[in-house]
Amino acid sequence: MTPNHRDRAVVLGGSIAGLLAARVLADDFAEVLVIDRDPLSPGAAPRRGTPQARHLHGLLARGLEVLEELFPGLTAELVAVGAPTGDMLGRTRVCFGGHRFRQGPSGLTALCVSRPTLESVVRRRVVALPEVRLLGERDVVGLIASRDHRRVVGARVIGRADGSAEEQLPADVVVDATGRGSRLPIWLESLGYAPPQQERVGIGVGYASRHYRLRPEALGNDLVAISAPTPGRPRGGGLSLIEDGRCLVTLMGVLGDHPPTDPAGFARFAADLALPDVQRILRDAEPLDEPVAHRYPSSVRNRYDQITRFPDGLAVLGDAVCSLNPIYGQGMTVAALEAAALDPHLAHGRTREHRREVGRISGVAWAMALGADLSFPEVEGARTPATRLLGRYVRRLQAGAEHDPRLGRAFLRVTSMVDPPVALLRPSVMVRAMTPR
Ligand SMILES: Cc1cc2nc3c(=O)[nH]c(=O)nc-3n(C[C@H](O)[C@H](O)[C@H](O)COP(=O)(O)OP(=O)(O)OC[C@H]3O[C@@H](n4cnc5c(N)ncnc54)[C@H](O)[C@@H]3O)c2cc1C
Fold first, then answer.
1. Cα separation of 409 and 387, whole Å?
2. Residue 347's pLDDT is what?
3. pLDDT of residue 2
4. How far apart are the C-alpha atoms of 183 and 166, rounded to whole Å?
5. Residue whose CA lies nearest to ligand 1 atom number 8
6. Which residue of 13, 141, 260, 409 is surrounded by the most CB atoms within 10 Å?
7. Residue nearest ligand 1's atom 41 by CA
8. Is the CB of 36 under 6 A from ligand 1?
9. pLDDT tens-digit profile of 152-181?
10. Does any ligand 1 atom lie closer than 6 A to the CB of residue 331?
11. How far, in Å, CA of 92 to CA of 316, rounded?
12. H or E segment and range at residue 78
């Protein structure tokens, strides 16, 4: 172990991106402070700052790999707290593009854990690092800059308790991980920097989720059933066994076709999915709570990677950079990859290379999500002959996956961010996808 050679990093936001950033920074800094407005208590309860945590959070296979690299033994720890695990295609019923994929081995691991439990286990690991301190119940209100504004040298925070005074937290590096609502563009402007260009894709997603206890054997040997919204059928949903023997059911609709939160409406919506299993399984399942809703109007990408004037000593990652359509389950994996990339790129507080790398990582996920979103004719965005051709090819591949688990495997390896999208164009995959059936 090399001694930490810099004094202090301050991470703004203590959710997944912030915790993972803290884990990486602890290798290099004597002290890492993580600030959040929520209490950040040890339990696995949903928090106000992460309302999305009540809904199904699939962890992509690549995300699990990165988490395991950052916290060796994490998978086993999650399994020990009751998270079911199994092969992603072998024990999952998936329906993409209206095609139910044939099950078979994929070599990819599905780890079925609720978001609050995943976050609490990661938080426990991070808190155990001697360098890290979590400071909850504090609002970040701004940055502190050097006299010439060329460098960020700390953050300003105010405790949430009545009468709290502003605290100044000096730092060698500040990392913004405050999520989609990040105020960094405004803070940059107040220091005389231009805010990033912002890209948006209106997708009008609505979620509703509810916990159930399933009848024994209701899912057979399987763990998950997922039915993705498709053009012409904007309703989707999924259910997953999670820890404590519970099952989390999330229904979703795009383009404003949102699942209702009254129990009868929730059940009716489930009946409209391409995969009939969800409704069938719910018919004799015992609901454990009332459905809760979440609205997600648009995906947003802040192009910090394109900014030429940016202060030293400042990095930004996670949803604060790019908030991805949640249907594709990419957000935590992208945050994990971006946090892991802090390591080689923060030398001397210069964060330009890290911004570029974050732009690259989030750009790959953004392009995949956009390609899928643009298959809905109602979604606004530029379509080129190449994207149309690719869309047709992916639909063909999904149809082939009904019969050929190798095509399902190739598709899931890409959507799980294990393989790059171009892997779908390998001759071995193309020949199978184009084989007439
Ligand atoms: C409905 C829904 C479903 C999703 N499903 C999936 C999925 O299946 N798989 C997946 O990988 N991802 C999913 N995501 C995305 C995932 O939740 C995020 O990508 C992930 O949480 C990483 O986000 P983050 O840590 O950058 O920000 P967030 O999780 O939004 O956390 C931001 C943190 O910053 C704190 N904060 C914000 N402002 C301040 C402030 N001024 N002062 C102090 N603290 C502050 C908040 O309290 C919060 O803790 C989903 C998202 C949504 C909305």
1. 22
2. 65
3. 47
4. 17
5. 57
6. 13
7. 140
8. yes
9. 999 999 999 999 999 999 999 999 999 999
10. yes
11. 35
12. helix 74-80
Counted residue by residue, the chain has a size of: 437
Nearest CA to ligand 1 atom 28: 179
Cα–Cα distance list, 29 to 70, 186, 245, 251, 314 (Å):
16, 28, 40, 43, 15
pTM: 0.97
Per the CB < 8 A criterion, the answer to whether 33 and 135 are in contact is yes
Atom number in ligand 1 closest to CA 16: 25
Q: Are 180 and 30 in contact (CB under 8 A)?
A: no
* Distance, CA of 362 to CA of 323 (rounded, Å): 9
Strand 173-176 to 314-316 pairing: parallel
Weakly modelled stretches of the chain, pLDDT under 50 = 1-2
In the Cβ-directed half-sphere of 244, how many Cα atoms lie within 13 Å? 11
Helix (H, G, I), strand (E, B) or coil at 291: coil
C-alpha closest to that of 228 among 422, 434, 401, 425: 401
Cα gap 213→216, rounded to integer Å: 9
- 395-401 long-range Cβ contacts below 8 angstroms, 24+ apart: 395/97, 396/433, 396/434, 397/424, 397/429, 397/433, 398/96, 398/97, 398/98, 398/99, 398/101, 399/97, 399/99, 399/437, 400/432, 400/433, 400/435, 400/437, 401/96, 401/99, 401/101, 401/102
Contact in structure between 229 and 254 (CB atoms under 8 Å): yes
The pLDDT tens digits for 194-242 are 999 999 999 999 999 999 999 989 999 999 999 999 999 999 999 999 9
Nearest alpha carbon to residue 312 among 181, 152, 194: 152
Cα dihedral sign, 332-83-240-61: positive
